[in-house]
Amino acid sequence: MDCIQSYVWIVPLMPLIGAVINLLLGRRLGNRVVGPLACLTVFISFCASTLLFLSLTKLPAESRSFTNLVYTWVLVGDFRAEVSFLVDPLSAVMILIVSGVGFLIHVYSIGYMHGDKNYSRYFGYLNLFVFAMLTLVLGDNLLLMFIGWEGVGLCSYLLIGFWFEDKKNAIAGMKAFIVNRVGDFGFMLGFLLLFWSLGKAGVWTIRFTELSANAHLLSAGMVTAITLLLFMGATGKSAQLPLYVWLPDAMAGPTPVSALIHAATMVTAGIYMIARMNFLYVLAPSAMTVVAVIGAATAFYAATIGLVQNDIKRVLAYSTISQLGYMFLGVGVGAYSAGIFHLMTHAFFKALLFMGAGSVMHGLSGELDLRNMGGLKEKMPRTYWTFLIATLAICGVPGLSGFFSKDEILWKAFSSDHGHWGLWLVGVLGAGLTAFYMFRVVFLAFFGESRTDKKAHESPGVMTIPLMILAALALVGGYVGVPEVLGGHNRFHHFLTPVFDRHTEVATHAHHSVGLELGLMVISVVVALAGIFIAYQMYIRHPEHPKALAERFPRLYNLLLNKYYVDEIYHAVFVRSLLGLNNLLARFDLGIIDGAVNGSAWLTKITAKWSGWWDNTFVDGAVNTTASAVISGGSVLRKTQTGRIQNYLLIAIIVIVVIMVVKII
Amino acid sequence: MIIGLEHYLFISAILFSLGLFGVLTRRNAVSILMGIELILNAANLNFVAFSRFVTIGISGQLFAVFVIILAAAEAAVALAIILALYQNIKSVSVDEADAMKG
Amino acid sequence: MEGIIYKIVFYLFAVLTVGSALVVVTSRNIVHSAFALLFTFFGVAGLYVFLSADFLAATQVLIYVGGILVLILFGVMLTRKVFDVKIFSGAGQVFPAAVGVAVIFFLLATVIVKTPWHLVGERAMEPTTAEIGKLLMTDFLLPFEVASVVLLAALVGAVILIRKEVRPPKVD
């Protein structure tokens, strides 16, 4: 028994300590202490995670799982809710990603946030964010996961609205929070439904291991309902259709926060949750289809929006949504390890892309618009090279990390029993679009003539060194999962398999030939290269083409530029529906009733009189009756609000009595 | 008849009901506070009685200790609130503290 | 094992407790209520003795009678118009409250009578103070410390609540 195994709690505890110190004492300690302290706590977590990972690899493959009970929180009969951490290959990989990438982002933040007046508050929140995510990932039961889940939502709200003096940012924070609440509602319902239905079957538990052992007790319909509700939570947290709208607005926060949200924490929570709940999803094939279809649709849909956005961070945001779609496509077709693999490689290159974009912003004193950049290649060489590597990785250029993970997902989407060639096709098209818009960013930002008067300068070392580390990871990170068909061993897959194995991760290699797999791989690479080539043609060789194209298809261009008007639609549907209903009624009144009145008046005097009478008695009467009904109803209800606490108490007691009587009888 | 658990529970139930009645009907805020104290005493009596007859331990008595501690804190704060109320509306009648009236 | 004297004393305390509690909630004079409350507290302390909770009985007398009741009496005296206030609330809910409370009492009584209590015997009559002290320093250390923080917070809160607000002189 490795001694580290009983110290799992160090991993989430360290960032929590950092958060508490920074939030309470940060201002006293001064900026020189706060930043390094925050980094140090996350670094300790990362070291502990590494040790845990190593101790896990020493165990035989079947028994790579242990729990670390810290505290029994609730104990009622046989039911227990514990603060207890589960380390298995899945959570080990996740804590490595979260603490590792999180640490680099912390270091980068020291440089990026330099001189901000709320420096300590920033690092406090950042630490809290990492703590919440680690709790979510390590928790061995639904309740602990839920705490982390909500904690992540809270921290994203705090950090997106970090510069809340500007109302726009505060609103973006609220939007993220509210949209997430919609998803969380589904998650909570799913969680309660699971708990309740298993309890009815005789097992009151919330621990994942026991849930998975008893999942067969549930009826098929119930499992489908639970998994769909849980997936609703995942669409909120992981920004999938239709709840993705908060993520592009999350740009309002400081750029390292975007990197943290998009790469290490927050959005990966949904993928992790579905992978953790794989034992349920395997029992609900229709729910898996829903997950895969929504994933593929999101991957393509977000990529089309990314084509025309001019804000560099917005392009990256839509690319995150799109890449998350790929992960959902992976888990939706039963390829959990492929989904998690892509999650890991995506964490590397997306953190890198965001921090590169932050570095560009830093160098251009806050410039975000791609149209005002250009020619940064010479001025910011380190940023350029690292950004280029990340772009190549996300495009799936062979040899880089993104290639292996994306291709595994696409292959599984094609070949698995839950897959379909249609899903594969949408995925490949999305990959082509990805390659195009990512290179559009690179060409617009780093190539050509400078289109701004601002003097660009390279960022300090504390910012570029994390970039280089991440670039190295984005380069080689994929080699842990080289597929068999390319002569690799896919060690990543085999490492994760025990978590999903018992439920038979869908076997695929049986009825598909090696040639087919290679052929599909070549197709997707060709599509990606074609995307890059078109971007090169349009933005380097013929810079006038994009404009001409936009003028030729103005409707399509505007549709994409305005993100399919989804924000406006949501606003119209959910915010202004009441107002809209009012307008509709008014128009009805004006157009039809008044029209009828006028028309009949014009015809004969009698009908005019008659319709006037109609108008007075029925139309006005109906309106007035409604109004007075509302007023009198209001005044009746008003009387119940006496403001006397004893009245309220008495009502509460009467209700309790009624409930007790009903329950006893 | 041997004096057993039920006797204490009955006394406690009576105390609780009387306290509740006081809280619901008295007009003077200080009287309401007294009702609350009665309810807390009823709960304490239950704790101690169960601790003697059912669990045969001492943890019930410890719970009662904590209830007494909280009752002291609660009384201090409640009286401060009553005094503040008195300073504001010159009365301790809860009927007059109805700023939340709809 | 229980002598007749034992029973008589028990019922005496029981009647003292319940009777004075009745006075507390029905008396027209609030000072009478407060003094009746004193007897209720004493009665409960006596019952604690019967339950072999000697430490609690002492605590009850010290804190309730010595602390809380004095506090309440201060409250009575510091609010001058106390005697003008009508006894029962004008919310017109004496009757519904009485019915509700009666139903609750009836339910409680039913539960008490019908439940098959899992009686395992009785604790011996022995001093408990030492054991409580030990438990407070071991198993219940955290709640104990938290309770002290709560008390401190209540103290500070009470002071802030009744402090006359001193407005700082306005600076232009």
Description:
The complex is a heterotrimer of chains A (665), B (102) and C (172). In chain A, 74% of the residues lie in helices and 3% in strands. Chain A is mostly helical and 665 residues long. In chain A, β1 (66-76) and β2 form a beta hairpin. Chain B has a single domain, classed as Helix Hairpins. Chain B is built from three helices and no strands. Chain B is mainly alpha-helical. In chain B, 75% of the residues lie in helices and 0% in strands. Chain C folds into two domains: 1-89, Up-down Bundle (Four Helix Bundle (Hemerythrin (Met), subunit A)); 126-163. Chain C has six helices and no strands. Chain C is extended, with a radius of gyration of 22 Å. In chain C, 28% of the residues are buried. The model of chain C has no long low-confidence stretch (mean pLDDT 83). At the B-C interface, α1, α2 and α3 of B face α1, α2, α3, α4 and α5 of C.
Write a brief caption for the model.
The complex is a heterotrimer of chains A (665), B (102) and C (172). With 665 residues, chain A is mainly alpha-helical.
Blueprint (SSEs and pairs):
The complex is a heterotrimer of chains A (665), B (102) and C (172).
Chain A: H1 10-29, H2 31-58, E1 66-76, E2 79-87, H3 89-112, H4 119-138, H5 142-160, H6 167-200, H7 208-214, H8 220-237, H9 246-249, H10 255-264, H11 268-276, H12 278-281, H13 285-306, H14 312-332, H15 336-363, H16 376-379, H17 381-395, H18 401-415, H19 421-446, H20 461-476, H21 491-501, H22 514-541, H23 545-552, H24 554-561, H25 566-575, H26 577-603, H27 605-640, H28 645-664
Antiparallel strand pairs in A: 1-2
Chain B: H1 5-25, H2 29-53, H3 59-89
Helix pairs in contact in B: 1-2, 2-3
Chain C: H1 4-26, H2 30-50, H3 54-78, H4 94-114, H5 129-137, H6 141-162
Helix pairs in contact in C: 1-2, 2-3
